Amino acid sequence: MFKKVIIAEDFEEFNLAVEQTLKDLNIVNFQHAKYCDDAFLKIRKAIQDNEPFDLLISDLSFKKDHREVKISNGDELIQKVREIQPDIKIIAYSIEDKSPRIKSLFDNAEIDAFVLKSRNSIVELKKAINVISTSDQKFISPEVAPSLLEKNNYEIDDVDIKILKYLSAGTSQDEIIEIFKSSNIKPNSKSAVEKRLAKLKDFFKANNTIHLVSITKDMGII
User: Fold this and answer.
1) In this structure, what is the dihedral angle of CA atoms 190, 196, 202, 203, given to the nearest 10 degrees?
2) Which position has the higher pLDDT, 135 or 84?
3) What stretch of H or E contains 214?
4) d(CA 40, CA 25)
5) Cis omega (within 30 of 0) for bond into 187
6) Which of 52, 92, 100, 135 is 20 to 30 Å from 147 by CA-CA measure?
7) What distance in Å separates the CA atoms of residue 162 and residue 80, rounded to the nearest whole number?
8) Mean pLDDT of 161-171
9) Helices (DSSP H) in 85-208: which residue ranges?
10) From the centroid of its chain, how far is CA 66?
11) What radius of gyration do the chain's Cα atoms show?
12) What is the mean pLDDT of the chain?
């Protein structure tokens, strides 16, 4: 589990919620910054002191006020932090739901998790922290995951999610096909379902179906 965390968040109510989440996970060494500039300076100083943070939780949007800033948003902060501390784990925690912006963070800044601020965000934040602290897997909030998971023109769609959910419930492949046919969900042929499963395993680098279900559960997709 993480030992030293920094939170970049300008709204006090969200900051308090994140702090309580960390306490619930027995993480007591954390700092908070309301400005991206301050967060960056704290992270840089921690590196210089040879006591680096091992997790950054950052909002993306910061409200402008009287203070002039060099780093105006979380996207810039995350990118700059990644440059000076490549191994730090990063969670973007935001109301942002536009896939191009989120996808850019995963592709360019290599964030480890994106948690959407929503009704279930605290539960998802805890899950994200647990996942990325114990593995190299990524975590994406289920609400935005389908639109982000693209590879070679392959996009995870509602049918893929249904297949994964049925598999996680212990439903066999043949049973899924019959359910699809009776519910008029297409494609529902054996070859089509097998191809989708093969693509999903390839996309998530899963060794088998059980591994596939485990990965997608950990990522919060199902």
Assistant:
1) -170
2) 84
3) helix 209-218
4) 24
5) yes
6) 135
7) 38
8) 93
9) 99-108, 121-134, 145-148, 158-168, 173-182, 190-203
10) 32
11) 20
12) 89
Kindly report, residue by residue over 71-86, the tens digit of the pLDDT: 989 999 999 999 999 9
Assess whether pLDDT exceeds 80 at residue 221: no
* C-alpha to C-alpha distance for 42 and 157, rounded to whole angstroms: 41
Whether the CB-CB separation of 125 and 93 falls below 8 Å is answered with yes
CA–CA gap between residue 146 and residue 4 (Å, rounded): 32
| 79 alpha-carbon distance from chain centroid | 16
- For residue 106, give both structure tokens: 């995963």
**pTM (predicted TM-score):** 0.68
**CB 81 within 8 Å of CB 57:** no
> For 65-74, which contacts have Cβ atoms below 8 Å and span 24 or more sequence positions?
67/35, 69/35, 69/36, 69/37, 70/37, 71/35, 71/36, 71/37, 71/40, 72/36, 73/36, 74/8, 74/36
Q: Which residue has the tokens 């392959």?
A: 154
**Whole-angstrom Cα distance, residue 15 to residue 6?**
11
Element housing 139 (H / E): strand 139-140
Q: What whole-number distance in Å separates Cα of residue 19 and Cα of residue 23? A: 6
